[in-house]
Amino acid sequence: MTKRFVIQVQNLNKFLKNFNLWVKQQWDFKHKALMPGRKYIRRAEKESKSHNPVNESHDQSEKPKRTYSKHFNTKHAEARDENVKKKPLIPNINESGTRSMKTAPDRNSEPIDKPKPEPNRKPNVTSEWTKSYDEMIKKPSVSEIIAKYYDIIKKSAKNTEMLERRRHTMSISEPKNVELTENTTRQIAQVSRETLNAIKTVKTRMIEEDEYRDDYKGLRYELVHNKNLPEFLEFVQSSDCSEEPFGRCFKHCLNGASCGFVEYHAYRSVSEGLSTFIRNKRGKIIGAAMNTIMKPHDIEGEAISLRNIKYNQIKKHYAVLHHHLINRNPFNTFNIKKLFDIRFMLVDREYNFKTIAQKLLEACETMAKGRQLKFIKSDVVSENAHRLFEANNYKMLGETTFYESHSANNKSEYKLRLYYKTFK
């Protein structure tokens, strides 16, 4: 609301108040007979007075000529002729000054004609005036012109507000004429490049998040068999996330080293339908796990197979695992005959820390329950794997530390832990 509009509304309210006062004064002045406390004039008396020439001349001299408003259907006043007398609206049966008495008719006398029905009289003028007076009290006495004027003021105020807003937006959007120097142009170029790079990074992140959500919605679990075995082996060979001893041995075999013992365990896992992997919506393998069912004679047979392993890297890793299992033998400690062993789990680098390993572990547990095995264990090295198994209520049976020398002065320490869990 602008100041101009407020002033116009105030002026309009003042005008309406003055207009209503003026109408009321005119009404009181012209129609005194209708005000409370006055005597209402009957129509018969009015007409009788109008026929007397004395009263007529007296009324013409004293009273002003009555004029009626639009509300009443009245004809224009005709020119009066004093010699011509108009008929009264109602025929006066009795003489003036006498009362009309109804007498019972005699039987012998002639039948008297029935009185004619009275004609439909027009409504009394005073009642019409009182009705219109009540209507004027109830309804506001504002003409259509004033209402139209009020609407025009509103529209003009809205238009002015819209024009002011447009001018304000145009003034903001228009570039100001600033003298650019070399330093300012360099700063502007740097800022523009930084903003563009930031926008690009945000867009790429959004695209990656959308792709991940779509892939995550359409995850598929598959068991490893003869048809999809090449894809599974290719994924294990290309991934470099496995730090478990058996995973490293299996990877060396895929890269060209020959070890019949490792290949035998891999063949047994695939043939029994214990290995599994996860595909995303696009069909890419993003996680895999190799599992076997171990029995007590498997640990005893590993000691014999170590003598026949010729490849030094495989022999070194498998010796650590064998030493670890002999010292923490779950068959002797828990007095069990067989258990479900998770040999290794691999997750694609793009899907690290995105609950893919959690889903693989849940899939392995369901497979163990399906085979009616009540004991599950895994030998893991990485810290992420330690956190994963501890978060899923796995207990640690033992820990073995071993070292790997990448060079003469560079040695890395690893902690091989055995985690287990029992089902009811």
From TrEMBL:
Residues 44-130 are annotated as: Disordered. It comes from Glossina brevipalpis. Signal peptide: none annotated. Residues 44-65, 75-85, 104-121 have a biased composition (Basic and acidic residues). InterPro entries: Acyl_CoA_acyltransferase. The lineage of its organism: Eukaryota, Metazoa, Ecdysozoa, Arthropoda, Hexapoda. It comes from the Eukaryota. This is N-acetyltransferase domain-containing protein. One of its GO terms (molecular function) is N-acetyltransferase activity.
